[in-house]
Amino acid sequence: MSAADDHGRRNRRAWNRMADQYQEILAEMGAPGELTWGWWRHSEHQLDILGELTGRDVLDLGCGAAGWARRLADHGANVVGVDASARQLVHAAAAACAGRPAVALVNGDAERLPFADASFDVAVSNWGALSFCDPHVAVPEAARVLRPGGLLVVCTSSPIYWLCTPPDADQPGADLRRGYFDMHRSPGNTGTVRFQLPYGGWIQTFAAAGLTVEALIEPTPDPDTVIPKHLDQDTWRHWLANWPFDVIWKVRKPTRR
Ligand SMILES: C[S@@+](CC[C@H](N)C(=O)[O-])C[C@H]1O[C@@H](n2cnc3c(N)ncnc32)[C@H](O)[C@@H]1O
């Protein structure tokens, strides 16, 4: 296996190591009162991306501790959460509680999904697997498991954030720190490998997988949003007020004619 294609193993190891700390950061931000997208908690109720969820078969790609998956289930969806990290799934299982709808948890890789073709109505990645998988592999794989008419929603960082952030850091600046055209794979300072594409690259990748882009949503965070204390508050507040961090791709598998 070459260094360029071992990202699955590296990400699994990194997420197993970081899982406990990640849950502490989420706890510090407080439980959102509703279904929200991205790091800065953009309200699904306001954005209305998913539509009616009752009775829908929904796949959460990179579900982590399944906080998101459980809220989808609260909305009446039949939810399967898949995650490469066994430790994240330990947190997911521990968070299950009586009286709330169950979520099926699967330890698996979004680049090789252990599901039959056309199994789901909706697939979502909320800063999940699609931020850590090669989009050229994971997008066609997500498209494969969607039914005709099914929806894929990918919330990840913006290509602009990538451009403004040095390869070995997480904190963006106000100038361009990397090239645009070679945007793809980036080993980060946490041991993970992240992926990003230029805007045109995402559109081409969705189209090659037979998916139609319905929207690219670039929400602005609430100015009072909680910024975790390990991040530089002023830098992040300035950046978030001026440039898009979380972006949400809403794409659909066409219905058969
Ligand atoms: C930033 S966490 C987000 C978790 C969750 N979606 C949330 O909103 O809290 C990213 C998750 O993606 C998972 N992940 C990374 N690569 C993956 C892959 N190839 N297949 C499945 N899950 C993966 C990680 O293990 C981790 O739990």
Summary keywords:
257 residues, Rossmann fold, two-stranded antiparallel ribbon, 11 strands, binds S-adenosylmethionine
Task: Tell me about this structure.
It is globular, with a radius of gyration of 17 Å. The strands form three sheets. Strands 5-4-3-6-7-11-10 form a seven-stranded mixed sheet, with helices on both faces. It starts with 6 loop residues before the first helix and ends in a 5-residue tail after the last strand. It has helices at 7-29, 44-47, 67-74, 86-94, 135-145, 159-163, 199-208, 233-242; strands spanning 36-37, 42-43, 57-61, 78-83, 104-107, 120-126, 146-157, 185-187, 193-195, 212-217, 246-252. The chain is of the alpha/beta class and 257 residues long. It has a single domain (3-252), classed as Rossmann fold, CATH 3.40.50. Helix 1 packs parallel to helix 4 (86-94) and helix 5 (135-145) packs across helix 7. Helices cover 31% and strands 22% of the residues. It contains eight helices and eleven strands. The structure holds S-adenosylmethionine (SAM). S-adenosylmethionine binds at residues 8, 11, 15, 62-64, 67-68, 82-85, 88, 109-111, 126-129, 132-133. S-adenosylmethionine is lined by residues 8, 11, 15, 62-64, 67-68, 82-85, 88, 109-111, 126-129, 132-133. It comes from Micromonospora andamanensis. Residues 59-154 form the Methyltransferase type domain. InterPro entries: Methyltransf_11, SAM-dependent_MTases_sf. This is Methyltransferase type 11 domain-containing protein. Pfam families: Methyltransf_11 (PF08241).
